[in-house]
Amino acid sequence: MRKWRLTWNLPNLLSGLYVHMLFLLGSVCVTFSDRSPEQMAAIMNCSKHERHTRNYDYMEGGDVRIRQLFSRTQWFLTIDDFGNINGTQDPTNCYSILEIRTVSEGGILAIKGIKSQYYISMNRTGQLQGKKIYNDNCNFKEVFLENYFNAYSSAKWTRNGKEMFITLSQKGRPLRGRKTRREHIASHFIPMKCREEERRVD
Ligand SMILES: *[C@@H]1O[C@H](CO)[C@@H](O)[C@H](O)[C@H]1NC(C)=O
Ligand SMILES: *[C@@H]1O[C@H](CO)[C@@H](O)[C@H](O)[C@H]1NC(C)=O
Ligand SMILES: *[C@@H]1O[C@H](CO)[C@@H](O)[C@H](O)[C@H]1NC(C)=O
């Protein structure tokens, strides 16, 4: 039996204490205090998709993590059934549950929406789109920032020698890659763990 635990407190999420706990405990991304039965059902529904994918991943091997990416602009990154990349403020939104797979050394990874089964891809012009078939446009480099956030830059494309990042603006929409900056808060995400058994230190 999987136990879902931990508190979810959006206003306090970015407080120092919470961030501290997050890294100490390796917390769970979705939490169940103050939730309606409908929300609970929706989350359990998401976890069915997770398990399915998870089994598949075991066959393929590789380091796979199940996460939500919560932006510093306060959105959960989603990939919908049309391959659109967007943000939601609903932490139970199944499209926000992501599979993050290490594809090579140096922090190169691929990010796939578990429900939609689309990979996030960035093309030469720096635009994000979902792709059903993985290719090297789907490779991102995970950058650990000093402030506990991570940033994800295209491993393939740069613009005038500058990295282009996955972003969610204040309005929860991706920016064009060429407008993105490592320092900009739209590029900053906290990967939030989703599963009890992933509480072990990676
Ligand atoms: C569970 O997922 C199925 C298929 O994605 C969907 O049709 C159904 O409405 C979901 N149920 C809940 C309670 O969210
Ligand atoms: C993206 O999210 C915003 C904010 O929630 C919403 O207004 C917009 O309709 C969404 N776009 C798509 C394509 O889902
Ligand atoms: C990049 O992706 C965007 C969004 O899907 C698309 O409109 C554009 O044509 C693509 N550009 C290239 C050069 O592939």
From TrEMBL:
For this protein, the record's InterPro entries field holds: Fibroblast_GF_fam, IL1/FGF
Q: Name one GO molecular function term.
A: growth factor activity
SUPFAM superfamilies named in the record: Cytokine
Q: Which domain of life is it from?
A: Eukaryota
Q: Which CDD domains match?
A: beta-trefoil_FGF7-like (cd23306)
Q: One short Pfam family name for this protein?
A: FGF
Q: Which family does it belong to?
A: Belongs to the heparin-binding growth factors family.
Full protein name: Fibroblast growth factor
Q: Which organism is it from?
A: Myripristis murdjan
